Amino acid sequence: MLNKHPLWKDLLVVFLAIFGLIYALPNLYPDDPALQITGAKPGVETRQEILDQSVAVLGQAGITIKASELEEKSGLIRFASVDDQLKAHSLVKKSLDVQHPDEYVAALNLAPTTPVWLQSLGAGPMKLGLDLRGGVYFLMEVDMDKALDIRLKNTVVGMRSQFQENRIRAKTLRQVQGRPEIEMAFNNVDMLDKARAILRKDFREFTVQERPEGDGYLLTLSLSEQSLKDIQDYALDQNLTSIRNRVNELGVSEPVVTRQGANRIVIQLPGIQDTAEAKRIIGRAANLEFRMLDAKSDSITTTRAPAGTEFLPVRNSPRQVLLEKDNIVTGENVIDAKPGYDQDGQPMVSVTLDTAGGRRMLDNTTKRLKESMAVLFIESKPETREVMVNGELVQKIFTQETREAISVATIQGVFGSQFQITGLDNYEEAKELALLMRAGALAAPMYFVEERTVGPSLGAQNIESGVESLLLGFALVVVFMIAAYKVCGVIANIALFMNLLLLVACMSLIPGAVLTLPGMAGIVLTLGMAVDANVLIFERIREEIRNGMTPHAAIHAGYDRAWLTIMDSNITTLLVGLVLFSLGSGPVKGFAVTLSIGILTSMFTAVTGSRAIINMIYGGRALQKLSI
Questions:
Q1: Is residue 321, in this structure, part of any structural domain at all?
Q2: DSSP 121-183
Q3: How do residues 117-157 score in pLDDT, each as one tens digit?
Q4: C-alpha triplet 258, 264, 270: angle, nearest 5°
């Protein structure tokens, strides 16, 4: 029988319509403007009394709150408007700074209002981009002087290791302070010739100058302009990679991390839930070094560090340890790190090194069994100081480095690429340290040059404009289809509404899908393209009726013969969408996502969906005339 669907097809259409309705529904529940109170350091929990104090401060200022609650380890205060949220932010921040300095941070937030029964089904609203939901914008600058200093320091360690392996004795081997140079002195020609051979083979980025000095020879190694540029490019690229990894660990959807100029990085985090957490993780320039304790000296009785060693403090302890300056491996050799607990229930991080790092660790633990090794935690922070430049007092940013041993233990057995780091204060610290190690060490410290918050109010205006354009476009299409195709136009509009539900539901469910303002333009375009398929089908049906076909035969022929044309046109558009997604970034990607998903949903609703409705209305009964 013509125009009679199998039952399973009708059930599929009904199921997808219900599916689209349920998973698109959370978008009707907008997020509440909120204030989140979190600990300034990992492991610090927000107590109820801290939340109550903040609520009291707001009450005294006459700011009405919607609700307050403890959420995991942070406090959340909800507001009815963005204006109340912004006023409350400054008040709570000032109160926390006075009563609990450096302990808690108040951050702008958006709290979901999706009903519990929808959340239990895994339904949630679409993720919105920076232009719709608001978020944070960071501009960070890489400390290139420190990048050069780190590279030269590692090069000196590598040279010293090479000389020891080849039995080359250098009188001195040191980095020249304040200049991108390395100096080494030799007492005889044989050692000098061997050193020259190694430098020509493994350190060709240096220009070597030689001159006599006393009874020996002095070599000065200088970096060329191209080598300096290569080091700066490497530092910026390495920091870009590390920042992207850290942002991914934060779970931010569609972040933008790009290079700006020769030494800056732009970071955009749309819809970020905790700006304080993001800033702490992104801006933290932390690294690890694994060093041996100086076994030749007693750190208790020794008052002056021998050559090649230094005193460094032990975390949470008044004592210091005497460490060798040469490191075994660093955080750059770490390829995986996972937090957990050791056999005594203390927090620890399980570390996996790369091949080179594992080999060095294995050689060291084999040779120096029963000696002590320390895990050194190095953190760099920006510090602004006033300096005199050309007779004027100006502010300049310097990098302040803190170094402390977080773990000191005796090597009880030989190990290589896998081991554990203990001595951490709590599990949160272990979790954050593992995150930083997994993300990759920064090649150089960075500091925040600019920080902007795109307020939710601006995003709300963009959403309002986008929704208005969407409704206007939808209304014009609805009016046109009814005027042009009567009852069949109504059926096309029902299929179009189902298409919108499925599109919004898919955007809400797909983890990486983010709606931006260009994405809303993609939805409007999709709605217009979706009815194109129905226009093709209905015009074909009209043509077949004019050629003398019965209404049932015309419906059957119209859908079957228009299908190939619809598929061809949609597939070519889909290919363009995929190209835009793969090659584009930011707004272009957002447009491509909605366009591609919309094409797939419209091909189903415009053909299968509308035909199912027509078959339910007209199928299985005599039909003399079709309202089209």
A1: yes
A2: TT--PPEE-HHHH-EEEEEEEE-HHHHHHHHHHHHHHHHHHHHHHTT---SEEEEETTTTEEE
A3: 998 888 888 877 777 777 788 888 888 888 888 888 878 87
A4: 45
Please indicate, yes or no, whether residues 191 and 272 belong to a single structural domain of this protein.
Answer: yes
| Residue that finishes a domain, picked among 96, 111, 126 | 111
Main-chain phi, psi angles of 108, to 5 degrees:
-65, 145
Average pLDDT over residues 568-575: 87
Query: Is the same domain home to 364 and 481?
Result: no
551 and 470 in a common domain:
yes
How many domains are contained in the chain? 4
The amino acid that residue 258 corresponds to is T
| Residue 108 Cα to chain centre, angstroms | 19
Tokens of 11: 């059930």
What's at 564, amino acid-wise? L
Please tell me the predicted confidence (pLDDT) of residue 274. 55
Give the 3-state secondary structure of residue 293. strand
pLDDT digits (tens, 9 = 90+) for 497-543: 999 999 999 988 887 677 888 888 888 888 888 888 888 888 888 88
Model pTM greater than 0.70? no
Report pLDDT digits (tens) over 60-88: 989 989 989 887 778 889 998 878 887 88
Closest CA to 362 of 322, 336, 332, 333: 333
Determine the average pLDDT of the residues in 417-425: 79
Which of these ranges, 348-362, 443-457, 480-494, has the smallest mean pLDDT? 443-457
Torsion-angle region of residue 2: left (phi > 0), alpha (psi -120 to 50) or beta?
beta
Domain stops at, among 266, 283, 300: 283
In a domain, 394, yes or no: yes
- Give the residues across from 339 on adjacent strands: 349
Same domain, 142 and 247: yes
Nearest to 334 by CA among 369, 360, 367, 373: 360
For 524-588, give the secondary structure using H, E and C.
Answer: HHHHHHHHHHHHHHHHHHHHHHHCCCCHHHHHHHHHHHHHHHHHHHHHHHHHHHHHHHHHCCCHH
Look up the domain containing 612 and give its range. Answer: 7-26+457-618
Backbone conformation region of residue 214, classed left if phi is above 0, alpha if psi is from -120 to 50, else beta? left
The phi and psi torsions of 72 (rounded to 5 degrees) equal 55, -110
172-176 sheet: strands from edge to edge: 172-176, 181-186, 216-223, 206-213
463 and 591 together in one domain: yes
The backbone region for 454, taken as left when phi is positive above 0, alpha when psi lies in -120 to 50, beta otherwise, is: beta
